[in-house]
Every structure is written in C-alpha cells, then in structure tokens.
Amino acid sequence: MSKSKITGGQALVEALLVNGSDTAFGVPGESYLAALDAFHDATDSFRFITCRHEASAANMAEAYGKLTGKPGICFVTRGPGATHASIGLHTAFQDSTPMIMFIGQVAADQVEREAFQEIDYRRFLSEVTKWTAEINDASRIAEYVGRAYRVATSGRPGPVALALPEDMLRELCTPQEQTPYTPALAHPGAADMAELKRLLEGAERPLVMLGGSGWTPDAVKLIETFAENNHLPVTVSFRCQDRFNNNHSNYVGDMGIGANPKLIKRMQDADVLLVLGPRLGEMTTGGYERLSVPVPKQTLIHMHQGAEELGRVYHPTLGINASPQTIAPLLATMKLEGADKWAESTKAGRADYEAWNTPTDNPGGVQLASLYKHMREALPDDSIFCNGAGNYASWLHRFYRYRAFPSQLAPTSGAMGYGVPAAIAAKIVHPERTVVACAGDGCFMMSVMELATAARYSANVIFLVFNNSMYGTIRMHQERDYPTRVSATELTNPDFVALAESFGAFAARVESTEAFAPVLEAAQASGKPALIEITVDPEAIAPTATLSGLRNR
Questions:
Q1: Rounded to whole angstroms, what are the CA distances from 314 to 100, 212, 295?
Q2: Which of 82, 170, 362, 405 is the most exposed place for a label (fewest CB within 10 A)?
Q3: What pLDDT digit, counting tens, does each position of 261-307 carry?
Q4: Is residue 423 located within the same domain as residue 407?
Q5: How would you class 452 by CB atoms within 10 Å of its CB: exposed for 0-12, middle for 13-18, buried for 19 or more?
Q6: What is the pTM of this model?
C-alpha cells in the first residue's frame, strides 16, 4: 500500500479520533472487517468494547451519550446486527441522546439484489434517527462523519446512523482534512429573558420543571442557585430525577408515572409553569391529561433545545429556543421581585415530597422501600443508578434520592433490558464510582448475557435482580382489566445466584429486609461484578397496589 494512501477503515477511525471519541461499543461482523483492522492500530487511543448482543451494544452507547454529553459510538454488522441494535436508536431518539451508529453494509455491486443481510437503512431507520446516510466514497468519510457528530449534538440531540459498504471500507483514499466538531447550541435572547422574568414576577403559584438532555453538572448547580435565590419549587420530568439534587430544600418530587397526587395537583394549580428542557411527553403529563392540550390553563414558559418542539403539543405563552447550558447562567443571576411570597408554598411542597418519599410497607419478607432508603444513606452521593422498564422501577423512582448529575440512566422510551448494559457502560466510563443496575427478573433476562461483558472488562457493577417470577407491569394491567384471567405473564427463571457465579461474579440471595445491608456491603467489597437476587412477593405489584387488591377492585 502506498504511504500516501489509507483504507476507508483507517479514514473512519481517524475521523473518530479527530472528533474526540475514544470508546465504541459493538459486536464484530464481517461487513466491517476493514474498520476492525484499523482499530487494531489504534488500541493505545481507542477502546472497542466487545458486547454479546447488538441491543446491548446500542444501549451502552446510548448510556455513554447520556453520561458524557458526547455521541455514544456503536458498531454493528448489517441485517440482524442493525435490527437488533435499533432499540438503542429508538431510546436515544426519545431521550434526545447524542449517538452515532455505524452499520456494515453489502458491497456496492450487490445493492438492490436482496443480498445477504441487505437492508436500505435510509428507509429502515428514518423513524428512529435524526439522519441516516450511506457512505459510498471513501474520500468523503471525514465529511459524513463530521456531519454525523454535528447533527447528533446540535439542536435537539439524537441518534445518527451511517451505513458502511464493505468494499468502501477497503477502498484506498488520501488522508482527509477535518475540523473537530463543536455542538451548535441555541441561546436565549435578551427579550426572552426579560419576558420570562416579567411572567414569573406576576405569578402567585409558580412551578419550575426540569428535564430533557443537554444538562451539565454546572448547569444543574446554576439552576439550584436560581431556585434558592427566588424560593421556587422545582420538579423534574419522567426519569430525569438527577437534574436537581433530591436532598435540596426546593425539590418537590418527580412528575413521572405514579407521581405524588399532591405534586400533580400543585402542577395543575400553578399559574405559571417554567419548563426547562422536557418535551412534556406522555409519561410526564399522565397521557396528556395533567395539562390541557393544546393550550394549558397555566401560563407556560417552555424552553427546549429544538425549535420544532416548541408548540408541538402544548402551545406556550413564551417559547424559548435554548439549551440548559446557555440559559442556566442567566437564570442564576436573576432576582425576581416579590419572590419571598413563594417561600412558604415551596416549604409545603418539600414537606409533601418528604412524606411521599418515606418508606411504605409491601407484602412479603423484603420491604423494597426500605432497601432504597438504606442505599441512599449508605452509598456515595455520586452513585449511578440504572434501570430498564417494569413495575420494580416504581420503588426506585419514589424512594431513592439522586444527589448528583449525571447519576440516573433510565430510558424514557420504556425499553426493557436497558439497565444492565447501561450500568456496564457507566462503570467503564466511571470505574471510580459506585454503579447499581436495578432490574426485574424479566428485564434482567433480556440482557443477562452481558454479565460476560462485565466480567471481561472488570466492570464491577452491583446488579440488583428483583425476582417475582412474572412480567409484573403486564400482570398488574391484566389483573385490573381481566381479573383472575392470567395469561402469558408467568415466568420460569434460572438460579440467578448460580448463574452469576458461573461468570465469576459475587452473588447472593436476599429474602429478608435485614439481610440486604450486609450483602450490599459484601458486594461492594468483593472487587468484582456482583449480583444480588431479591425475592419479591408477587403480591407486591406496586408501591400503592397489591395483586389481590387490583383483582378485588
């Protein structure tokens, strides 16, 4: 090979390095062998984390994007690899997470023949990406990759997919000039901030809601200052609880599934609602019923990174196209006249949250709320908690307290199987931090194979498996709508302790509340991935419901 020429695979890896990436998650495939070969020469500056399933690889990349604010990088092969991985793109799209997926593709001379594993990704992935393209000329790799980074991080962040024909990756090209990406962040104007101030100063019952993506630790701290200075109550949208310190006196709870009824009423009774970041989606608004569509009765000040999201469902009185990073410094210096009058209401909202956050009892030998109370007291403030979907997560959301950002990895898309790979990615990115994956037995089994990945990379995650031998959420709906007619929701599980031990992990089973604390301590001290199976009484279907209660009602 001429010294003045490089392969498309080498150009691709060079483009990743120029744009600041140092980690990718993937499952190897023959369709991008030339890229894998190029990674061989970049092992000192780039980690390729080999996963056991493409869905997990995509979820790890998505979690990386949430944690760092930089695009999570994922590599999968064509056909089955891409279809498996599409779940991660969907999560990244709904959660507004920057992510780039590189997909092996058939050679150019095989296109449109339904060749082995051939798919047109521009059509297939158009609903779950901001942009999908195919690179057919190796000399344009830097152009496409640079655009991918900019699209993924600018405006409303989200996923991008690039298909890589295998012959293109082998093609020779000259090294390509490129400029590292910088995200294009929207900024609020002076008129926006003046009107925001005027509307808030006219409020009797204001409420601030935080959520969405684009946050940084500094932005979170600045919003805390804004809330403190002006005695404002702060809530957060669904699965965005780490956007505000839950121990802060201005925090009044999360507006997610099963939210505190008093908090829902507070939002509905508010006269001014300042929403910073969330899209105000179905889960946060209780099926779009907590706020009237399309015009809420509250004066709505809605800030979002994507201009196209403002007024998409709810028509704001004031729509501001900005990012949390650009508006937070302006809010931190804002002093609202008459803010002292909100102090007592905010204090009452905090009292409502603390009462809601106080552990409640559930059927069975393990009191789940008490477990989370213990963890919020025993684990470091910057511990990262990850979960997928299922009723088991309702105890986590209600009874744990997030005290740092970023520390919550959870899919607003409601995807099962997310928590385990997300936690592994988190531990790889932050090996110094405690990382806990919470999963029901159904959710855990959807990504159980990644225990091998945790073992391979010494990702010493603490995996909590809440085992009630059923798909609990669906069973809850089943008992509510079709009482006693159980169908397709019962599960047969392996011995989780023996399974984890077969991967070399620490493992234990907890059948009583009292047994949990010493087992958690042993898991932390084990120096290896750790699994704690927690036996859950099937009656304990939700913090506010039992199976028999649903059936009788």
A1: 30, 16, 6
A2: 170
A3: 999 999 999 999 999 999 999 999 999 999 999 999 999 999 999 99
A4: yes
A5: middle
A6: 0.97
